[in-house]
Amino acid sequence: MEIDKVYEPQRFEPHWAQRWIDSAIFKADPRAPGPVFSIVIPPPNVTGSLHIGHMLEHTIIDVTTRWHRMQGFNTLWLPGTDHAGISTQIMVERKLAEEGLKRRDLGREAFEARVWEWREQYGGRILEQMRRVGSSVDWSRLKFTLDPDLSRAVREAFVRLYEKGLIYRGEYMVNWCPRCNTALSDLEVIHDDQQGNLWHIRYPVKGTDRFLTVATTRPETMLGDSALAINAKDARYLDLHGKTVTVPLVDREVPIVLDEIADPKFGTGVVKVTPAHDPNDFEAGKRHNLPRIKVINEAGRMTAEAGEYAGLDRFEARKLVLAALATADRLEKTEPYAVSLSKCERCKTIVEPLLSTQWFVRMKPLAAPAIKAVEENRIVLHPPNWKKTYFEWMNNIRDWCISRQLWWGHRIPAWHCAHCNHITVGRRDPTKCEECGSSDIHQDEDVLDTWFSSSLWPCSTLGWPDDTEDLGKYYPTTLLVTGFDILFFWVSRMIVMGIEFMGDVPFREVHMHGLVRDADRQKMSKTKGNVIDPLLINEKYGTDAVRLALLMSAASGADIAFGEERMISARSFANKVWNASRLLFLNMERAGVEPQIPAPGKPESLEDRWIFSRLDACAGIVNRAVEQHRYHEVAETLWHFFWGEFCDWYLEIKKLSVSDNSGLDNSWRNLLTAFERSLRLLHPVMPFLTEELWQRLANGDSRHAKSIALAPYPAHGEFADSGADAEMAVLQELITAVRTLRADRRVEKKLVLEGVLYARDLSFTVATTQQAVIESLGNVRLAIHNRQAPKMDGAVRSTPEFDLVLDIPVAAEESGEDLQAQRMRLQKECEQLEKLIDNSNRQLTDENFLAKAPPKIIETIRTKLADYETQLAKSRAALGS
Predict the structure, then answer these.
(1) What is the pTM of this model?
(2) C-alpha to C-alpha distance for 245 and 746, rounded to whole angstroms
(3) Rounded to an integer, what distance in angstroms lies between the CA atom of residue 44 and that of residue 462?
(4) Tens digits of per-residue pLDDT, 145-186?
């Protein structure tokens, strides 16, 4: 079968991506036998496009999903997208702005219709990208968080929590975006370190001639001060406790209170308490029953409570407040100060901490069983160091603000009565107030935080609250793969909701991967211009190469520094696989062997026994690594096996024995078996390349699976052969010794050298049985003796097991400079051996070590010491010293 000379993944990747979808080979069947592996995709925003972080995450999920499917598991990878309330609404509002419209010009119903239109037109982009990169999901189960069935699940969850008193409506401090006009979760807030100022403001203590000085970065909020706080351990101010101060500019008299919020070591040790504009001040205000004076509104402008500054933008008011303080001699000093500005992740507006009436979930009672689940290892976190962070977060958890002031999302199922102010919450839309019977009711304007619906993702996507077949089969899911940065905002909330509504955890394991950063380890952002489009990279290097490069960088718990040099190396590996396959197919044609997956032959030759043993070992390492989520080890092991063992050694030796018109003999059976198993080993990591080559090899034979993705993954334990491993290690060492000597002396590759090999024990056995291989791959002719070597001169390579002497013709001798390099190498070897001998002697004369070490270890050290001493003597002899 003809195979292209050049590896061009762009030619066959789209074909297989579509074929996998059309054939529905990844469709899960809850009635199928076998152990279950189920996983849900972390739902990407419907507004988004695939970025390099998605590419890493989807690669990891796809590797473990394909591996489990090939292991015979009843496998489900469930796809879907998130409605992304704020992001989507911003996108549509920008579109409207191009038409000179605002959402309020349309009204809520018409605006929602426009968002749905936008979603139909643009929302499928990321799904198309997922199809293109070959994610092996069950597309028949595609979900969207605003689908009717998922919306019903969200409403059911809200009502149940409300009925249990776990959802309430109240006044609380929130992150507020004046541009988006909504509360934000902590995850939707980014922090930008900037150089700012610390202003020191003097508050006169009533009835005295003293002042208390407060340092603040937000002087405009002083207009809403309710108290000043001092620490009970701060002797400087204790005599003022119980007195009052006058707030400058507004002449409000407020108390001096004792509170831990004041840190004697920070600033002046005195803190202004503004309960309506700072989360910590809000808590202090509750402790001291202080009034909450709101001086900044939701639009970022000053309220009537700000007096003469009412209506001004908050930052304009700051300038005027500072000028007035200076005029009144209340501004003591201004000093430079580094501040961390909180900004809306989407529009970059500076966030305002505001007191706001919102809907909340009481988290303490829900967090307790979620903590216990991780403590009891019913959920295992990888890497395990995240357990400590998880416990710290969950043990100190605050109530969750779940309302957002948006029009796109799950509208809160609560109706307010205009007659008696009662709130009716129900599974169906009510027509009257359940308290007074009035029909003058209206639904709450807010929608639910997007994280609320996504917290139900593992169960709602499988049919909850109905008792579905999928839910019974695939819940709890087996594994969650996600970034560590959403451990608190998504992972912990899924655990909480899963236990609350299903009575069991939502997943058994969580693998948290690192973030993909640029080559300088900077976080990627559009602002910095360092964002990587994975589809462009895939087009350039091939999807399989990108997957391999990302996995090889994905050490557990570590961030990835993205660099194209990794892609170049990975593409070289893909080329190696392609070229090795092409070599194989060309030789098959010459030998008259039709493409096929034959029954294995009997491994008789050393190379066949060895490669089967290495296949066995590789499968064992890879299988354990996937189970333990060491995906970088998976990639590195496969790379080393295929390139270093299958190509560099096995194929090179096999080329010596295959001949034209030989037909499908035992040797060919073993070669094709080893090749086909190698493709199956590689498949989860490099699905496109392996599918293309495997299909060419299977040649349409209906006895085999319709896709390599459905073929069994190689198992460990069937072909282990320690004897072959040992013999091959000696053979490799002998050939490498010949090649090293040739390279050291810079002998022309085509020149056949004469030489003598003095070998002992296993080295002699291998040398005599594999003499033809050694001579062909080393381009030498050897006389082999089973004895110690005499005094040797010239080109010598020695180990404890053998001594090799090559006769280098005068015309091929290296220059004096090269001889010096050879001497330097031998001197370095002597120095290393001397260190090893010193270390061994130190251990063997250490009485404490000898008393504690097992006899086997001591004997091993003695054996190695003898080998080191033998080798040192030979190296010194070669140096003539």
Answers:
(1) 0.84
(2) 90
(3) 18
(4) 999 999 999 999 999 999 999 999 998 888 999 988 888 877
